[in-house]
Task: structure prediction
Amino acid sequence: MPFSPHRRFFCDRFGLNKFLAVAVLLLLCAPAIAQERALELSRTDRPWEFLTAVGTRAGLFGDESGRMEAWVYPLKLFRNFHIQFEVSGRILPAETLARTVTARPESCTILYAGDTFSVKETFFVPVQEPGAVITFDVTTETPLNIRVAFERDFQLEWPAALGGTYPGWNPALHAFAFGEETKKYAALIGSPTATNEHLEYQDNYSASTENSFDLGVTTRKSESRVVILAASVHGSAETEKTYQQLSATYAQLVTEAASYYRSYLGRTVSVELPDAQLQQAYDWSRISVLQGFVNNPFVGTGMIAGYRTSGTSQRPGFAWFFGRDSMWTALALDAEGDFITTRTALEFLSKFQRDDGKIPHEISQTASLVDWFKNYPYGYASADATPLYIIAMNDYLRESGDVEFVRGQWDSLWKAYQFLQSTYDTQGIPQNFGIGHGWVEGGPLLPIKVELYQSGVGAAALRSLANIARLVGKQDEAPKLTEQSEKLEQIINKDFWLAEKKRYAFAIDQAGKPVDEASVLATVPMWFGLLREDQAQPMISELAAPEHQADWGMRIIANTASRYSGGGYHYGSVWPLFTGWASVGEYQYHRALPAYENLRANALLALDGSLGHVTEVLSGDQYQPLSTSSPHQIWSAAMVISPLLRGLFGLAADANARTLTFAPHVPPDWANFAVKNIHMGPCVIDLRYHRTEEAISLEAERSGSGDCSLEFSPALSLGAEVIAVEMNGHLVANRVMKSMVDQHLNVKFPLARGPNKLHITVLNDFGLSIPFALPPLGAKSRTLRVLNQTWSASRDRLELDIAGVKGATYDLGAWSAGQLSQIEGAEWTKGSAGRGQIRVHMPAEEGEDYVRAKVVLHFSAKSSMEHSKAPN
Result:
């Protein structure tokens, strides 16, 4: 959180001057310092891991060995940037001395350590400037020189090209200058202290592609050096201006960038969680998503898909604009309250909408420099970007209440709807074949006629457009759209359902037959609440099994399927995107245990691998990213945000109706948490939750103008009994809604300005928690899976179907464990404060790694009469 004015005053005025100021500093500066430290991630250097620093106009991509490439969009400047240390007559490659890496939102640092020196190399890209800065903080006992070297790679991002380019040395700026024949594109890389430059060359006898210069010998114990790079698509004068500005103000720009990211976290939805890892991952994921926001001088500002090094090519991972990626990401942006970025992403896509209404799939950063949409097959390759555009527009409307913007997009939305209609088969199912791929783009799962995924987003788009029509003055269209949505929903639940297998088919093939392959893609229609609950439940049980759910996320199909390969991009690998879909879908259908494991898997990925980022795709066989994975993938980070806010917390705003829904599935080992800064129209809402064994307390504080209401609907076990619900000490009306898995108390009340205190007395609530951690890199899954929970009609018996590694022992946490009278298939011990532990020993059978077992819990619950006699 940013410093308040009084806190900043005391920190600046007294922080270093007086002994007494130490106490002031600790008291007033500690919250802000703690927040900054919480965002800083540091660990032992892994030279193979991706390392990046990005802004809206430039990026540095490389690895933790310190080898980097530089981009100022849409130009690539160089590759294989690296340093050497000259000390005591020796030349030491820096990568051999890399010891730790530290990531911050605004920069990243590698610490190198030798026998008599240490150097901190920090990579920084300003938020808004077309350039970057690399600083070196040196501590040494003996004189030390840093030699900087790189290979010039001055070209436009694929598929455009500059043709011939050339380097030179600018002695006035102490910098290498790159140019090309038209004089439009230019770049500089140098340092105020640069000397002893060596220029690449090629002649009849030898050649070198390397450019280098020295930063100068450090003669004092502690000194600093800096490398500046800048570029422009408008010539050398603008490049030189940027270069000099960065040279003069980079320290200020670092401070501004850090403040920019702190401010972003402060103005979007923040959380205070008992799970420190999930807390940190959520904060970093908001930053990671924001860093997908790119300003390109040719095509505009929008959301790119992800970052990866390009090596000797001109394709930096997925650092160009994607339709469906940005729309899935927009759902996370809306959930956290970043409506400005969502609106920008929607406007960007609408600019490139095809005349027939189809929304683009991919837009290269040099799309305007080539005939991208005619000569390349990627522009409109997908079928799902179009319905997702309608879904994202409706979600933006509901969460932000911005009716005027969406009303202005009605013609674009109607064109998108007409395109969607043009893809229907005779039954009214939106097709993939001949139209564009749905999720699966290639591999043995194809060919098909239509995916369940595509039908799901199609039905959700129709329902979304009906809601938009009602709110923007097109009420006459709403009934027809609602009818079409309901019809398609019925078709999905009939034609894709395999009754004998109790699961949904992956797709309908070209002969009109279901493709009998269980897939995580079924959780997409679950996200939108489209599948029948009695059919969704057995499907979730199948997907929760170890064949589908790895410790690091969800495989697209089971690892026992005939089409499966652990490295198959679309037929076996694990995508954090799938894992996020599954988590939200499972929460929608009240399956909190597998949902929380999936949420935690994505969250822990953000703290491992490329620090602060979630990778694109991992092996289905063992815990490691695929070799082709984009390590900083934007929608992967979004799938930490959406499962937490939309899934676990069940947050949904209807800004036009001024109603916030808060329907959490709270992990049983969470006693307290807070969700703050929820913006709903002119209202700002903070929520604080507290639970004991016999009560749930909620304090909802509303600021801002206007009236608004809160619908609170916490999940309880089917064995729980609600005794009383009080608002500010007075009994209030409530109702209880039962699902097949749990029940939800529901109470709706207007939010008065200031605190609103709700107290719920509840008896016999029960919950289980499963310890979860990622395995070591390269290892296989080991976590226990709870496949199903079945309560008896009398609620005195709970049967658990579980899967675990053969011969392994697992400990489960139990909440409100005092009710337990007997356990079959496990051992148990009662703890304090209503908690206990259940220990399961899996059978040591032959065959597969995972085996099945059953645990039965018996309850002897207190009656509500006994509760009334208990002391407060």
Q: What stands out?
A: Residues 796 and 859 are 5 Å apart (CA to CA). The first strand starts at residue 41 and ends at 44. The radius of gyration is 29 Å.
